Amino acid sequence: MTCVRPGEKSRIWRTAEAVHLDLRGLDPPEPMVAILQTIDGGEVDTALVAHLDREPIFLYPELDDRGWSHELVQSSRGSTDGEDGVLLRMVRRGS
Amino acid sequence: MSIAATFLGGAKSRLLPPSMSFRFFAAAAAFHVLTWLGLFTAAEEAASFRGNLGATLASVHLLTLGVLTMTAIGASVQLLPVATRRTLRAIWPIKLIFWLTIPGLIALVGGMYTAQPGILIPAAVTTASGLLLFCGLLADNLRRASSLPVIGAYGWAALVALVLVIAFGVALASDEEAGVLRDHGAVALAHLILGGFGFMGLLVLGFSHILIPMFALAPAPAKRPSFASFATALAALFLGTLGALVGSRNLLTAAALAGLAAAASHLWLMHRVLKSGMRKRLGLSFILVRAAWIMLPTTLLVGLAALYGVAGDSGATLFGFLLLFGWLLTFLIAILQRIMPFLASMFVTPPAGGGPAIVSELAGAWSLKLHATCHAVAFTVLVVAILLENTPLARLGSAIGLIGAIAFAWFTADVIRRISQAG
Q1: B39: exposed, middle or buried (C-beta count within 10 Å: 0-12, 13-18, 19+)?
Q2: Is B342 in contact with A57 (Cβ distance < 8 A)?
Q3: pLDDT of amino acid B2
Q4: CATH assignment of A2-92, among 3.30.110.40, 3.30.470.20, 3.40.50.300, 3.50.30.80
């Protein structure tokens, strides 16, 4: 696991399967903005996995517009405030 | 870290079935058409409306309860459980809210239109039951919204305002038959202030803190100035309600000035959001949002002018029109035309070949362009009609507004058709 570019408020690291972004603890819509910045910045060559407090429903159309698909999965660890968080796995369509 | 180790898989979205929120949005679109139709038929009294029973009062309630409140309920039941991270325990209360408020509203409007006080009380009680159930649902969600303190504060204040609006509304309906109020006009003004600036206004200001950054792809406004803006708005609302009830021009003046300060701070926060946003081209809906933002301080300035008798004979009518049609309707229709495609996209599979997604496709719909044009023209013509107390102009403006409302209903039906086909 390699840490590639820790953000001011979020953590980002890379595994063999995906680039991970930990966005828990951020107020909406900051997680959505961080994900789109990461995608638009061309930093993701495989899949992007976002660790979130809440489901970013307004992100989905933005992903569609950019040709990305998403899969919502539950986090087994929960979020920072003890509530169930979510993991969102995103991949570029056709990749 | 292995993905497989952390994923449980098959997570269920907190989104409700589309029929839950879209039944309210469809109702709002239908009542929007009826609002303009009501104004068209009542053009001779609409231009100089002073709050009496009749077709114009019916149209006003088609707008406030039918369009604005239905939009607020539809958006709240869908978005709040996601924002507060708590799934609703059951969906039957949402259905019950719908089946209480819609027949109640139709009966209430019918009673107002035909000026039959006998219908008003049972209709008001039925509508109030539905709205109080919505209050319970909203409260249940807000008490768990500690992670969103600004939205929570606005939400609680809006909820209290709604309870007072309901109480004053039932009292006003009772007064038409039994004459229970000492000053009907004072309570009616408090009802308008609490409904327009309180319940709907605070919800609009609160939801703006999350929706505007979401659409502009920007960070949310800082908490401290947001709370300062909220406190000022709340003070304005308190002063305005009290001033209306006791008939104090000084209190109403203080309320208008505090309201202007709250509006200025809110608009400054929103300006900062747009300036820092990743998305600069925000499309047609944000032309309407910006127009609504101009209407907010304009409404307060006209209210202040009307208070001192310098806005002409129709100053009070103009104040109410700017508040309801200028600020609230313009803003909510702008947000609704943005939210509906977003929500629809959750239930419609994107095109496999990478064609335009539903949000982009619907953003340029001809029906939205026609609606926005008609809304702007109708609004302008009606302002002139009110200033001149001119019936033909009021009828012309209402007819143009009606065409726009039909175009918006067409757009709503198109969104629902796409969801139905996907289902």
Answers
A1: buried
A2: yes
A3: 36
A4: 3.30.110.40
